[in-house]
Amino acid sequence: MEAAMKAFGRVLTMFGILLVSFRADAHDASMQHHEWFNAQEMNPAARERLGVPWKSCCDNGDVFKTRFRVADDHSDQWQYLKDGQWKVIPPDIIKSEDTPDHLPVLFINKRTGDELCFFVPKGGL
Questions:
Q1: DSSP calls for the chain
Q2: 125 lies in some domain
């Protein structure tokens, strides 16, 4: 039993190290376009809806790497894939500014999972 607990403890420690490493890399100043990511701010309507005092997309959120699509009816509704399901991107977080790579970028709150900022791709999907 003791050996199993030690093995489990080692697995948790390794998982924690990997998680901390990922978090550190996500906000690493040597990352390409680091300044752009840190300069992005939430839309006022999204801040009001979420009831948050902070403005930064990056300080309280991380970029969520996933797939994106436009709604089946080809409306202006954007969706992203999370946990195998398509979720609607709230319209009040959509920003019209381009991204450095001309790709869609979605920031999600680190603690709550709320969507914070979404940058529409200029080159299409």
A1: -HHHHHHHHHHHHHHHHHHHHHHHHHT-TTSTTHHHHHH-B--HHHHHHHT-S--BTTTSEEE----EEE-TT-SS-EEEEETTEEEEPPGGGEE-SPPTTSS-EEEEETTT--EEEEE--TT--
A2: no
Together in a domain, 89 and 112: yes
Provide the residue-wise pLDDT of the chain in tens; the chain has 125 residues. 555 444 434 433 333 322 332 333 445 666 778 889 999 999 999 999 999 999 999 988 999 999 999 988 877 899 999 999 999 999 999 998 899 989 999 999 999 999 999 999 876 66
State which residues form the domain around 96: 34-119
CA atoms within 13 A on the CB side of 48: 4
Give residue 71's identity as a one-letter amino acid code: A
**What is the rounded CA–CA span in Å between residue 41 and residue 54?**
9
